[in-house]
Write a structure and sequence with these properties.
Two copies of one chain form a homodimer.
Chain A: H1 14-19, H2 29-46, E1 51-52, H3 55-60, E2 75-77, H4 82-94, E3 99-102, E4 119-122, E5 129-133, E6 138-141, H5 147-153, E7 159-160, H6 171-176, H7 184-187, H8 190-193, E8 194-200, E9 206-208, H9 225-229, E10 238-245, E11 247-248, E12 252-259, H10 263-275, E13 280-286, H11 288-298, E14 307-314, H12 316-332, E15 336-341, H13 344-350, H14 352-355, H15 357-363, E16 369-372, E17 375-376, H16 382-395, E18 402-405, E19 410-417, H17 422-441, H18 457-479
Parallel strand pairs in A: 2-4, 3-4
Antiparallel strand pairs in A: 1-2, 5-6, 6-10, 7-11, 8-9, 8-10, 12-14, 12-15, 13-14, 13-18, 16-19, 17-19, 18-19
Helix pairs in contact in A: 2-4, 10-12, 11-15, 16-17
């Protein structure tokens, strides 16, 4: 999820669900019948409590936080260890049942939709933090561990895991979708921060992408299977363990906010801050519409103009210099109202608009649903695409305040839509396609961090070309010839 | 190459070579005959000058800087553009001829050896820097561009490309072998710094791993083909273009040197410097044997003990703080003789031992050849593996001073060997295997940056396990079913 969190789904106990009728009719009679035939096999692997047919559980596992339609799986299993995942996968493989991995369901491109029915593997019961090595700056986690749970676990070590997509997503899910977020400009995305993965392939094979238990900070040993799995969105394997890089918690942090007369001035400041070598930790852009929404929602009085929210990490002394350099640069670009804050409370107040942006956007149209688009372009192309996109939104009577991880050229329109209005949904759909094509025309990508999922398969082909899609398909076929792993996603 | 450079091979003009007799007898009569049959096709694609059978040219292209035996290809071609590379590949594909890409020949694991004969693609004639976008911090280069040539080209932009393996290697070759080197602790390896690749597959298909001309700083669009090609050592495709991340040249640099009573003290200092969040740019370790060699070779008077060479990048003011922090930490670990220098001349003098290490090692045994091993382990395991390795060297009467990129847990023994002594070569071979297995036993890798090439195929299997090797083989088969791309390497 893009901005902040929403209360997590409170799942009913699988046992309770078992007692319920299968009130959600399966759309896939073939897989549904196959599931019925393997029920006892599934139960013998992960226990009575570990298999759920309940309508509510299946519905909860058939959608993420996007506006993609819910497609419930035929059954949800709750394995407790990699051996169970492997055994369950073997059963599915033998009976040609689709396998859909499920972490926290906080994805944004319909990645968990069971479009061909099958078995959803909920990994929430595998939630242990394993093998913490503070002196080596690495840790290994099971797939049920969320980023907040990990950082809470790390509290006394002086270390943290900085990749922050907003939602309290599971770390293995973040690996599967190549998540990033606000800190990527300084600490990189999941691609740069996963050292090793354990994954179960379609046939039940347990793969360790960099070798079992290995955790060197760099390696040149063979094909980079780790980064083939990162971003594969469950279509190549179920990630059952991730070894991650950790970082020392910075001695101090400073937050700052600055308003600009134009998008160009905000982007120019960003480029110059990066050129000056300021090791900026976060540099977030909010457009005038979003600032207005935030002012209303949180009773703030920021200028209603393009705004940068900045965060600096470092030693007390280096921070002073970083902030001064950033202030100089923003002022030379016409920035005004540069405010900064050092202590936690003041920093929180200063960034309140940014933190509440999701809810502020929603409050623009009470009762509506929010849907976050996602494109990424080279930095210098940002002003053009943002100006054109704002024009497009106006012309098409759409509500879509803009927020972006501007240091990476990545931004989102927070589309606030009436989910029961098919005409508006259609306009939003056409708008997001135009937005993606605008990014492609400017050397960019149709998705910087949300992934392809269900929604961007056609755009992927336009982006990488038929040769690259053919190569991706060959790789998929070589690892999952029966197309059982999360079918219908990416390709 | 590990440390510094050696004078590059001065190749004879292909035209001159054409006039020479094929004095190197082919070891592969089948491919040799096939090459004869396609000669006119090759010449029609890249011209008379673009095809060479000359013995000297073939020998120069049959070896890198390792001690692996020279295996000359049957012919060397010199394409001038990607279209020629693709057409040449199609001819090879049709006639089942192996394809071996060749950049600068500075590899260290026999990656360019034509073990099954075939056609060497020398890419030196494709040497243009293309599409420099200073405001977006990216550039695209052809495969003949070396890292020094690129940095020279960038001189007036305020930007640089920091990955530095020592040798003046071609950047696409560095991508193919997943090179890194001294700066990786701050700026990452090739894996983190390649945004897009153009590559020609075995059948002549031109692939753009992230889509033609695309250069967003991050993407979540489909499988990460870029990082599948990075480190594939020419076994999946010929890299014909690389789009790279650039960085602002730091305002200032400081170099420092410090001696330690033990390897443990040097490594503890490294861990603490990283924990303190000092954005160290280089942190290099030399052991007592190497320091002694350097003192003798360069008439220096450093303490003959484990030593760290450090480099700090940043603003004038931040550097002062970084250096003070590092000095505090080294002293608390028993470090002594902490010296630092700011201006270019003094920095060069201070680091002279590190820069000359390769030649200093060679000078230990005049007339011998040097061979750099390469392993990488989690930081905390470095003291144990270095102590055990020094013991092993002594027990086996081998000369192997140690130098390492200690911030990444990566180190090398510079084996100085008598190349005409098969018994000594055998002892070195057994030693490097023991070293690699020692790294594996400590959760590490048999190669941090030199790659698998010819020499570490068996070790790769021990490292990643049979499941991962099988997955790698399936990927290879899916993209190169005839096994024509650099056969005999990695797998």
């Amino acid at each position: 999820m893009l901005l902040g969190f929403r209360p997590s789904l409170r799942l009913l106990s699988p046992r309770l669900q078992l007692l319920q009728s299968r009130s959600v009719q399966s759309e896939h009679p073939a897989t549904s019948a196959a599931v019925d035939s393997v029920l006892s096999a599934l139960r013998s692997i992960c226990g009575e409590d570990g298999v759920s047919f309940g309508a509510a559980v299946r519905e909860q596992h058939g959608r993420d936080e996007s506006i993609h339609r819910c497609c419930p799986p035929d059954v949800v299993v709750f394995p407790r260890c990699v051996e169970e995942v492997s055994e369950l996968a073997k059963v599915c493989h033998q009976h040609n049942l689709p396998i859909i991995p499920f972490g926290t369901g906080t994805g944004l491109e319909g990645g968990v939709s069971a479009v061909k029915g099958g078995v959803c593997f909920s990994l929430r019961n595998m939630d242990q933090v394993l093998d913490l090595h503070p002196e080596d700056f690495d840790v290994t986690v099971e797939p049920g561990v969320t980023r907040k749970a990990l950082n809470s676990h790390l509290r006394d070590t002086g270390l943290w895991f900085p990749v922050d997509p907003g939602a309290d997503a599971s770390l293995c899910g973040m690996a599967a979708t190549s998540a990033s977020g606000t800190n990527a400009v300084r600490y990189g995305t999941m691609r740069e921060n996963v050292l090793n993965l354990e994954a179960v392939l379609a046939d039940g094979t347990v793969l360790h992408t960099a070798g079992k238990g290995r955790r060197p900070r760099k390696t040149a040993a063979g094909y980079n299977l780790t980064n083939l799995l990162v971003g594969s969105e469950g279509t190549l394997g179920i990630i059952t363990k991730a070894t991650l890089r950790l970082y020392g918690i910075p001695e101090a942090m400073v937050s700052a906010v600055c308003s600009f007369p134009s998008v160009q001035a905000a982007v120019d400041s960003t480029v110059q801050i990066l050129q000056a070598g300021v090791p900026i930790a976060r540099i977030e852009f909010l457009d005038d519409v979003m600032m207005d929404a935030c002012n209303r929602f949180s009773s703030l009085s920021y200028a209603v103009s393009p705004t940068l929210f900045l965060e600096f990490h470092g030693s007390e002394r280096s921070l002073e210099e970083q902030v001064l350099t950033a202030e100089d640069i923003t002022q030379s670009n016409g920035g005004s109202d540069f405010q900064w804050a050092r202590d936690a409370g003041s920093r929180e107040r200063l960034w309140k608009a940014r933190h509440d942006a999701w809810y502020a956007a929603l409050a623009l149209r009470p009762g509506c649903k929010a849907y976050a688009t996602d494109v990424c372009v080279p930095l210098s192309r940002l002003p053009q695409i943002i100006v054109e996109t704002k024009q497009d939104l106006m012309e098409n009577r759409l509500t879509g305040p803009i927020a972006g991880h501007v240091g990476d050229g990545n931004f989102h329109c927070l589309m606030v839509v009436e989910p029961s209005d098919p005409e508006e949904l259609h306009r939003v759909h056409l708008f997001t396609e135009r937005l993606a094509r605008r990014a492609l025309a400017l050397d960019g990508t149709c998705t910087g961090e949300h992934g392809v999922g269900l929604g961007k398969r056609a755009l992927l082909c336009e982006e990488v070309g038929p040769e690259a899609v053919k190569v991706m398909q060959r790789l998929k076929d070589s690892l999952d010839p029966k197309n059982l792993m999360n079918p219908g996603k990416i390709l």
